[in-house]
């Protein structure tokens, strides 16, 4: 029996280009990698001019700052931004007001990590302006209608044009009534922050008209919650809030649970049955000095935690909860100062030749001497450094410090003189146009033979853009340095590319090594990786070796090198020297 045909890639491409809104794909830096026909026609820029440029380059300076300081950090932390008002500069130099939404997708298979951006005309803003114009014209027609027009202007200033609900300004205006209704010492003021789950999928698949229809339907379901002095408001996009006084926090969270049930019922949008859900954050006022903005911010934090915990649920903000955005910005500032103020440290883990049992090299692993948290491992800050771009100065410092130490060992003689030094490269470093010059300058400055240096790149980073990676690796190889694929077995690399990359060794991921003593599947994978490495003329290196049993198995399999706690933990240079001096030299 023949199977049904799969989806037509050409059909998806046609949908992409014919979408009613501008649709772009960028990398984490905002560099455009794909753009649809709609945006090309609307902006007037040619596709060839757009591709490779940063999206921010087509914004005024103020919006460039907004995108770099708000949108990119939000994408790194929350994975999405919604309906940010910016301007796009067209090919004719004119500015066009737009609403920008973006989401960050993780790397999957051979698809690299990317940011998908949707840009559409600010139709709600135009609707608001049209209503203002209508109100002004009515006021000009007669004095009798002037009062009505002023009233309408006031209503528009305080209400959302699409749903009719109070906007942020209107929420603040109505809050006085809620506070006046509060029983002193008894009732608690609370904010419920409601964000629809997967609203972007409706906009992307059915269009913004369907998205507007969904927002109106949600408003109708929330409307009964706004009885009496209770306020229901729309802040922006798919974000709503409910504000009221409650007898206790349990009453507020009970309302949140009830709203989740109300919103889960199916809706019919443009003839289709759609089941939506929401994530709700609840914040309780702690004292009389807390502003509505403070409450909304805390409820927003709780809402994002609800999304992180699976969506379709509510979470209560605790006074001890911190704002992840503020925490990240603070940590970035501390790391930036740590790099410039000399707070980084390099520890070295020996790499042992399994045929001789002697140390043949070391891997350089960075640490951060934090002023209050102590010595931090790379898992605490490397991802943040990679996403922010700080990994470039950080990586350059680690490379220079490691080569300086290698030169010192060579001048001292003894065991350290013959050690190969391995330094890790991140994906952002691999894509940096100045990488080769940075490595060459560091080697020349420290007067180190390039053959002493081994650069390790993760399999995932290589496969994010294999063609660009091949170009970078070839240029590095021309310097005379060694190259290794790190964490091999986790990145779904193509054997074709593996043969083409000018690499010297494969480092088998520690997750497979840990199961050598107990898991036949892991043993088979490790054995296959070693055989594959030898088949293409590469060294096979095992990382994360912790037991004598793992070491015996690796020797039987013919593994060339190994490192891990079984031999030594990563050590500062003086302690590594003691470790080396206590063992025979090659």
User: What's the overall geometry?
Assistant: elongated
Backbone CA Rg: 29 Å
Helix content: 40-55%
Distance between the termini: 66 Å
Q: Can you count the helices?
A: 23
Major beta sheet, specifics?
A: 8 strands, mixed, barrel
Strand content: 15-25%
The order of strands across the largest sheet is 13-14-16-17-18-19-20-21
Secondary-structure map:
Elements: H1 9-18, E1 22-26, E2 32-35, H2 37-43, H3 47-50, H4 61-78, E3 80-89, E4 95-105, E5 114-121, H5 123-141, H6 143-158, H7 168-180, E6 188-196, H8 199-206, H9 208-222, E7 231-236, E8 239-246, H10 249-264, E9 267-269, E10 272-274, E11 278-284, H11 292-308, E12 314-316, H12 324-340, E13 344-353, E14 359-370, E15 374-376, H13 382-388, H14 391-412, E16 420-425, H15 427-430, H16 435-446, E17 453-458, H17 459-464, H18 466-479, E18 482-488, H19 495-500, E19 505-508, H20 510-513, H21 520-535, E20 539-543, H22 548-557, E21 561-563, H23 573-581
Parallel strand pairs: 11-12, 14-16, 16-17, 17-18, 18-19, 19-20, 20-21
Antiparallel strand pairs: 1-2, 1-5, 3-4, 4-5, 6-8, 6-11, 7-8, 9-10, 13-14, 13-21, 14-15
Description:
- The chain has 586 residues and is α/β, with parallel strands linked by helices.
- The chain has 23 helices and 21 strands.
- The protein has an eight-stranded mixed beta barrel with strand order 13-14-16-17-18-19-20-21, surrounded by five helices. The chain has a five-stranded antiparallel β-sheet with strand order 2-1-5-4-3. A five-stranded mixed β-sheet has the order 7-8-6-11-12, sandwiched between helices.
